[in-house]
Design goal:
Blueprint lengths: L1 E5 L2 E4 L6 H14 L2 H15 L5 H8 L3 H10 L25 H13 L5 H12 L5 H11 L5 H16 L18 E9 L5 E9 L5 E6 L4 H14 L7 E3 L8 H8 L4 E3 L9 H15 L9 H17 L11 H8 L14
Parallel strand pairs: 3-6, 6-7
Antiparallel strand pairs: 1-2, 3-4, 4-5
């Protein structure tokens, strides 16, 4: 017997030991933890309550390795649920570029005497001449800053190519200037679910920054082709009025998705790596769609066609019936109606197949 779904997983109906404690943790987790950390909390709760501390059964149920489960079990601290959050992998100490005047002068002299030598050879020579070890990156920095190159023309061309490459780098959402305009910025994301029988399902989600109009669709594969299909459906939903698109650095937003953005003249703006706080509006919608739809329906994610059919009904209710606190308790379509006259395709009388 199963009573509900949490993050796509069916949780057995079984009295929980210390029910109040685990329910309290779950309640606190919803307020304080990211979706990823909430899922890890469900692993811990399942381990202690449903399978009598059997790690193998827990890992099998959630489709993870025992090594992964033990990693988070060992990190879990009942007094600090934030121990279930991913930890930054950035080094605690980063080297600083401290090049003394004397070191710079010595490097300059050596480089001018040996213009064709690389930094590693100059490093060895520096040690022999001055009896001091110096890092090769300091030598490289002095060469770059003072343009101590044998072929300056060739180096200038290389610098120009690097400059052009930097211009084509991903534009970060932190540089984006938001405007209080409907369709000025749409957020797109993917929520991954593990099926109980093995395999995955991928829920692509999207929301408008201002009107909170939202759309979602379930796919069985995680590819840029499917993401491009989703984008074209979203383009239809907004009647081609999207101006900017924001998403993370997932592979599904490359290749075919990029080509679709180019075809639709949609600039792409990227979140910073491992920074979900760059997309709070869609993170909140992802939580809502899981709590109010995925966990409430009586079918699994295996039946993609039926899932999408019911999802569309839920989206119509979300956009045209459900009041939104952020919109002063208007629905997204009511908010849009107050700010523009055109009727979007996703209304109670118009749906996207």
């Amino acid at each position: 017997m199963y009573t509900k779904r949490i993050h796509g997983y069916r949780i057995p109906e079984k009295p929980l030991p210390n029910t109040d404690k685990w329910q309290l943790y779950r309640s606190l987790g919803k307020d304080k933890l990211s979706f990823s950390a909430q899922l890890k909390l469900e692993w811990i709760i399942f381990y202690y309550t449903a399978v009598e501390k059997k790690a193998a059964n827990t890992a099998k149920h959630f489709g993870i390795s025992r090594k992964t489960f033990y990693k988070w079990l060992n990190r879990f601290n009942e007094k600090n649920l934030l121990t279930l959050e991913e930890q930054s992998r950035a080094p605690e100490r980063t080297r600083t570029r401290e090049i003394s005047f004397l070191q710079r002068e010595r490097i300059r002299i050596l480089r001018k005497k040996h213009l064709r030598w690389g930094k590693m050879k100059l490093q060895k020579r520096y040690l022999k001449e001055y009896g001091e070890h110096i890092s090769s990156w300091k030598i490289q920095k002095v060469i770059e800053e003072e343009h101590l190159y044998f072929d300056k023309v060739k180096q200038q061309k290389r610098a120009q190519r690097q400059k052009q490459a930097q211009k084509s780098q991903k534009r970060r959402i932190t540089e984006f200037v938001k405007e209080n305009k409907i369709n000025h910025l749409w957020h797109v994301d993917t929520v991954i679910f593990t099926l109980t029988q093995g395999g995955y399902r991928y829920l692509l989600t999207a929301i408008d920054e201002i009107s909170k109009l939202a759309y979602a669709r379930l796919y069985s594969t995680h590819s840029s082709k499917q993401a491009a299909d989703f984008l074209k459906r979203l383009h239809y939903l907004t009647e081609g009025e999207m101006i900017n698109l924001h998403h993370d650095n997932g592979s599904e937003f490359e290749k075919d998705f990029k080509a679709a953005c180019k075809e639709l003249s949609l600039p792409q703006w990227y979140s910073r790596v491992r920074t979900p706080t760059d997309n709070p509006v869609l993170e909140r919608f992802n939580r809502t769609i899981q709590e109010e739809f995925v966990e409430m329906i009586d079918i699994g994610l295996e039946d993609k066609t039926e899932f999408n059919r019911r999802l569309l009904d839920w989206l119509i209710e979300y956009n045209s019936v459900r009041p939104h606190e952020a919109l002063d308790y208007l629905t997204p379509l009511e908010y849009i109606d107050q700010n523009k006259t055109s009727l979007l395709p996703m209304s109670s009388s118009c749906t996207v197949d």
